[in-house]
């Protein structure tokens, strides 16, 4: 869920840091709570986190609390996987229906996925191409720039190879196309793909270098 809040790209506002940390403590505490008193105290932390978000954004704190209540177990970052796939030196991108921006195909990993399997599935679903994940290009903190997200996430970008299929848009994507580095569209899809990721995948195609990580 994105937050409507203007800021410099390099900044992560302190109120979001506090809200995330309080929500994570609450979620983990509720998971391990041993009695009603502990449950009440950790539930109150969840309410405080929702109130912080409601005070600094256009989101309703009661709606946020319902979202928090659906988060169970030990709180950890979410995982976004992206598949950098090339054909004749051109990068495969998809256009998202939700905002019209272009992105390296991918999405959230599901519980039970192995990372490589998750990215291969996402690329197939969004583009029509069957791919094989060959290496990890980079592991990034996904929420340090661009639109803010309530929940923290990591992004894993894989270098993938086409092994079959043909271009086919999906219910999430309206176009599937290959672009040279000089032809990359200026309108990218929010935090899904940023110029940093575009730069790194083209370097990874031409150079054998270690995995990038934040």
CATH superfamily label of the largest domain: Nucleoside Triphosphate Pyrophosphohydrolase
The fraction of residues assigned to DSSP E strands is 25-35%
Q: How many separate helices? A: 5
Q: Shape, please? A: elongated
Along the chain, the helix and strand elements come as EHHHEEEEHEEEEHE
Q: Total number of β-strand segments?
A: 10
CATH top level assignment of the largest domain: Alpha Beta
Would you kindly provide a written description of the structure presented here, covering whatever features stand out?
- It is a single chain.
- With 214 residues, this protein is α+β, with helices and mostly antiparallel strands.
- It folds into 2 domains: 12-69; 78-213, Nucleoside Triphosphate Pyrophosphohydrolase (Alpha-Beta Complex).
- Helices cover 35% and strands 29% of the residues.
- It has 5 helices and 10 strands.
- The strands form 2 sheets. Strands 2, 3, 4, 5, 6, 8, 9 and 10 form an 8-stranded mixed sheet that branches. The protein has a two-stranded antiparallel ribbon with strand order 1-7.
- A hairpin with a 2-residue loop joins strand 2 and strand 3 (90-96).
- Helix 1 (14-32) packs antiparallel against helix 2 and helix 2 packs across helix 3 (61-69).
- The radius of gyration is 19 Å and the shape is elongated.
Give keywords:
alpha+beta, 214 residues, 5 helices, Nucleoside Triphosphate Pyrophosphohydrolase, eight-stranded mixed beta sheet, 2 domains, two-stranded antiparallel ribbon
In short:
The chain is an alpha+beta fold.
């Amino acid at each position: 869920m994105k937050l409507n809040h203007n800021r410099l790209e390099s900044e992560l506002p302190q109120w979001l840091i506090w809200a995330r940390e309080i929500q994570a403590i609450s979620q983990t505490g509720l998971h391990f709570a041993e009695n009603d008193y502990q449950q009440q105290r950790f539930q109150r932390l969840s309410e405080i986190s929702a109130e912080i978000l409601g005070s600094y954004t256009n989101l309703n704190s009661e709606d946020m609390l319902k979202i928090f209540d659906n988060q169970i177990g030990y709180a950890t970052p979410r995982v976004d996987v992206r598949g950098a796939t090339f054909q004749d030196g051109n990068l495969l991108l998809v256009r998202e229906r939700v905002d019209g921006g272009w992105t390296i195909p991918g999405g959230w990993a599901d519980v039970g996925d192995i990372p490589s399997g998750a990215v291969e599935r996402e690329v197939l679903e969004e583009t029509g191409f069957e791919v094989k994940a060959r290496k990890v290009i980079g592991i990034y903190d996904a929420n340090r720039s661009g639109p803010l997200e309530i929940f923290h996430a990591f992004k894993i970008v894989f270098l993938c190879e086409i092994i079959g299929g043909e271009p086919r848009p999906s219910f999430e994507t309206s176009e599937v196309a290959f672009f040279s580095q000089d032809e990359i569209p200026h309108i990218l899809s929010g935090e899904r793909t940023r110029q940093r990721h575009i730069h790194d995948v083209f370097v990874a195609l031409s150079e054998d270098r270690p995995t990038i990580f934040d």
